């Protein structure tokens, strides 16, 4: 395959970002786009050479190598099934779904088909995260503190729990994924929501959530989210080990230890480009650096759902250990 033929499902904010990045790769052709809102598809197509297709089956008839699924959380399921049935590689934006069942069903299909997949957890490609992982490789984390402190995003579905899954599932999934990548699996969570939705029409999600996390390694942690601000304040993770304090996230890396303090600036564009480059390379068979295939994204999704469930029930939720491969 010399050129990777890509289709886009969903033409909103994140699809526009992927389209921009993919348009910069000379071995990718964005063949088509579809969206339930035809004008959205037409707008995105107007910025690329892509054609507008009426629906997913029509898009999939265009001999695609890969499809980006960039729909809101409530709209996952049938599209992924159709993409996999058509034999195309699958890039899915997080969160994978609203629930466990849909994402688990797709995961099984991915495994049966042996499909190339990737999930949009691009933080794993940030240079600051690479550096943090190196530093933590031989320093067991003791305490972890994750935050996502933000405004309400400007999309109508976001403040509704039955559309977005809420801030933990929709946003803080990035922080939870980073915690898993740097510290390891979480075995138990306990969370509380503040019960006060943000001040926007139709909102029913918690405006703030606090969670406690227990890691398999023995580390303990917290996760705090709020959407009560008028700006994006911070999204990232603090990790403390013996004689080491490390702060990593969208704003880069800050490390403090016996040698003093050093910083590495954040570069989101680099992560956003690398996640697409790694996917295209894997689809073309010229690379093997997909850091979050669907099964790995599912682990993060199940963790986020456990935190969200605990915030609703007020009870701790245990997360079952990974089943051995093939079970
Ligand atoms: N990885 C990241 O950094 C990142 C950044 C932003 C958004 N996201 C994720 O991407 C997803 C989409 O976010 P967005 O900001 O692009 O939302 P958006 O509302 O701007 O765009 C979503 C688009 O999908 C379309 N759509 C809805 N249902 C559809 C269906 N069944 N088939 C085809 N199109 C459909 C909508 O009409 C809309 O145009 C969300 O889950 C969000 O969490 C990820």
TrEMBL record:
Ranges of residues in domain Gfo/Idh/MocA-like oxidoreductase N-terminal: 5-121
Domain GFO/IDH/MocA-like oxidoreductase residues, every copy: 151-240
InterPro entries the record matches: Gfo/Idh/MocA-like_OxRdtase_N, Gfo/Idh/MocA_Oxidoreductase, GFO_IDH_MocA-like_dom, NAD(P)-bd_dom_sf
Organism domain of life: Bacteria
SUPFAM superfamilies xref list: Glyceraldehyde-3-phosphate dehydrogenase-like, C-terminal domain (SSF55347), NAD(P)-binding Rossmann-fold domains (SSF51735)
Pfam families registered for this protein in UniProt: GFO_IDH_MocA, GFO_IDH_MocA_C3
PANTHER family the UniProt entry points to: D-GLUCOSIDE 3-DEHYDROGENASE (PTHR43249:SF1), UDP-N-ACETYL-2-AMINO-2-DEOXY-D-GLUCURONATE OXIDASE (PTHR43249)
Protein name: Gfo/Idh/MocA family oxidoreductase
Organism whose genome encodes this protein: Plantactinospora endophytica
């Amino acid at each position: 395959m010399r050129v990777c033929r890509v289709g886009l499902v969903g033409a909103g904010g994140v699809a526009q970002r992927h389209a921009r990045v993919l348009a910069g790769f000379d071995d990718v052709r964005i063949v088509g786009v579809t969206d339930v809102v035809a004008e959205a598809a037409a707008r995105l197509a107007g910025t690329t050479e892509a054609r507008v297709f009426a629906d997913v089956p029509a898009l999939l008839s265009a001999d695609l190598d890969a499809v980006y699924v960039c729909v809101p959380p409530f709209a996952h399921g049938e599209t992924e099934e159709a993409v996999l049935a058509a034999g195309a590689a699958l890039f899915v934006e997080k969160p994978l779904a609203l629930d466990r069942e849909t994402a688990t069903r797709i995961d099984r299909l991915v495994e049966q088909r042996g499909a190339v997949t990737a999930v949009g957890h691009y933080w794993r490609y940030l240079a600051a995260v690479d550096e943090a992982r190196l530093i933590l490789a031989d320093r067991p984390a003791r305490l972890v503190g994750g935050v996502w402190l933000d405004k309400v995003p400007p999309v109508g579905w976001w403040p509704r729990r039955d559309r977005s899954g809420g801030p933990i599932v929709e946003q803080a999934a990035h922080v939870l994924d980073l915690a898993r990548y740097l510290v390891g699996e979480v075995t138990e969570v306990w969370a509380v929501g503040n019960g006060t939705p943000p001040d926007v029409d139709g909102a029913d999600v918690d405006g703030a959530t606090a969670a406690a996390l227990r890691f398999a390694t023995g580390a303990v942690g917290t996760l705090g989210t709020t959407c009560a601000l008028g700006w994006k304040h911070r999204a990232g993770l603090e990790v403390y080990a013996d004689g080491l304090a490390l702060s990593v996230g969208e704003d880069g890396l800050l490390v403090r230890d016996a040698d003093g303090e050093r910083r590495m600036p954040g570069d989101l564009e680099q992560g956003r480009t690398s996640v697409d480059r790694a996917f295209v390379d894997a689809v073309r068979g010229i690379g093997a650096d997909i850091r979050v295939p669907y099964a790995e994204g599912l682990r993060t999704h199940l963790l986020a759902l456990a935190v969200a469930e605990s915030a609703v029930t007020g009870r701790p939720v245990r997360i079952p250990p990974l089943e051995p491969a093939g079970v």
